[in-house]
Write the structure tokens for this entry.
Amino acid sequence: MIGFCGNDNQGLNGIEAKYDDVLKGKNGTIEKNVDASGSTLKDSEEKYNEPIDGNDLVLTIDSTIQAIAEKYLEEACIDNKCTDGGNVIIMNPKTGDILSMVTYPSYDLNKPFEINSEELKSGWDNVSQEEKNKLLNEMWRNKAISDTYEPGSTFKLVTASASLEEKITDTDNKGEFNCSGGIEIAGVRIKCWRYYRPHGSESLREALMNSCNPVFIGLGQKIGVKKYYSYLNKFGLLRKTGIDLPGEANSIFLKEEKVGPVELATISFGQRFEVTPIQMITMVSTIANKGVYVKPRLVKAIIDSKTKEKKNLEVEKGERVISEDTAEKVLSMMNSVVSEGTGKNAKVEGYEIGGKTGTSEDGVNTGKYVTSFIGTANTSDPEVTMLITLYNPTGEGGHQGGDYIFYATQI
Ligand SMILES: [Zn+2]
């Protein structure tokens, strides 16, 4: 996230690159008159221009939270043998301030050109320059903003929000839905993850607690492609968030006009498209911010090197995406997911925690999985949202999102 500088102190990555102009200052100079050969002219006056220090930045990062997140993300990735690492983002949903952003594995910011794997380091001299560049670029990647992934069931929060806002359903209509293990859409049968023991009769709250696919597929069909895409757009999921870092990727969705009933069905429960972790946490922060979009940011003030004056950067005001009423309903359901549903491992005594788990395949037929947990606390007035993503956990715990929440509660 912070990045590093090159030999001439020019920012090459992360905050160092994005804010290079603010941070770098100006070299001092001497002006004098010289002749064609470069010798100083007689009686010529020298003018000395003092160097100007670069300004300082005040980051939104909370160093305590960052240190804890680093510690437990590393533990989660090692314990669960995540072959492709992991990341954590923690955000204040009221301001968009990123309190923590961690990618694992990381590297030493003081030695950015030193590869972070012992195995690669031992054979480094025999690696071609081209390969070296590729490996270093991979090591430098900030997965939270540069890598897209299929979110899976955490995305049901979008479908739930849209259908409540459109008044298609409500949270606690007893027996409103019925899961028979699957649903047929345009001649294609799409299974619930628990097809072998169908969920049966459910309200929306129960469907979210069970993470029941057919219910969200049905809701997606009722919302329709056009409306559904307008919510994707309003939640900021069709564009980059514009966070103040270089290298942000955009989501990968089918073009609206190419989405048929089957494609809409899979989108409704979080499959067959990709988003970045920063887009996901921004979407959840919008719900946690009682329905108003909030733009993520990493710098909250600039301190002038000369005057020591601190200039606070204003929080950008976002648009309302869903009503306060809808947001509160979704938060209350997220609370049920943690207190008695698939997210119950995230329960912490004395806190009202809300959350949603997600598991999906990393690409088509790769056999690799991405597992994630999205959380917020307290659900009545959230001050913090969090997303933990683990890439290809191959340990004994398997890859179901619910099992990894333990690490989230440590953070
Ligand atoms: Zn079901």
User: Anything to note?
Assistant: The longest strand covers residues 353-361. Residues 225 and 258 are 10 Å apart (CA to CA).
